[in-house]
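Section 4.2 – Deliverable D4.2 (structural model, holo form)

The reporting period included a commitment to supply a predicted holo structure for the target in complex with S-adenosylmethionine. Inputs used:
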Amino acid sequence: MYLQREKLVDSLKNYGVIKSDLVEKAMKAVPREEFLPEEVKSQAYFDHPLPIGEGQTISAPHMVAIIAEKLDLQKGMKILEIGTGFGYNAAVIAEIVGEDGHVFSIDRIDSLAEIAIDNLKRTGYDKNVTVIIGDGTLGLPSETPFARIYVTAGAPKIPETLKEQLEIEGKLIIPVGTTNYNQELIMIEKIDEDQFKSKSLGGVAFVPLIGEHGW
Ligand code: SAM
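Output (C-alpha cells):
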C-alpha cells in the first residue's frame, strides 16, 4: 500500500495542504491501514474519514495534515491529543516530534483506546505515545504544561482547563460549534498566563466532544 500512500501525500502536497518536509515525511511513514478496522482497510488512502465503531471516525488524511501543519511542530515537543480514536493521528504527530518528544492521547471510550494501544504497539509508536482512558476535557494535569494541544472532537466552547495546561507560546487547536458536524477550527496561542490570541482556521465536521467541559 506504500505507493497509494505516497500518491495521496503527493496530491495533498500539490494542493498546498502539506507544506513542510516534516509533515510530508511523517505522513509517508505512518501506515494508515494499520489504524483501520479490517472492513475499511482497502479505503486507507482515500481522502475521507472512515468509521471505527462506537459511532466514531478516523479523521480524513487532509485534516490530519492541516492540524499537523498549523501546530507548527518541532522535534522534542510534548503534545496532548484529545480524541485518540484508533491512534492514527497520534502516530503521525509522534513521528514528527521524534523520539525526544512525546504524545499523550486521551479517549473517553475504553474499547477504542484499547485498540489504539494495540495499533500503536504493532507499528512501534508506543515508545512515544501514551494512551489514557478518560475525559480529555479535563486535560492531563499530571503532565502539564504542553507545547501543543489539539482536540479531534467538536466542543461547545474552548475548555479553560486546556488553555491553562498550555505552556507560554504554546498552541491549542480545537473545533468549536454545534454537535451536528458543523464547527469552526480555532487556533489559540498563549501569549502569557492570561493573554491569548485566537484565529479561525475554517469550517470543519467532527464528532462531538463529550465530557465535563464538552457537551
Ligand atoms: N484522532 C483520531 C484519528 O486518529 O483520526 C480521530 C478521533 S475521532 C474523530 C474523535 C474521538 O474523540 C472519538 O474516539 C471519541 O471517543 C473521542 N472523544 C469525544 N469526547 C471525548 C472526551 N471528552 N475525551 C476524550 N475523548 C473524547
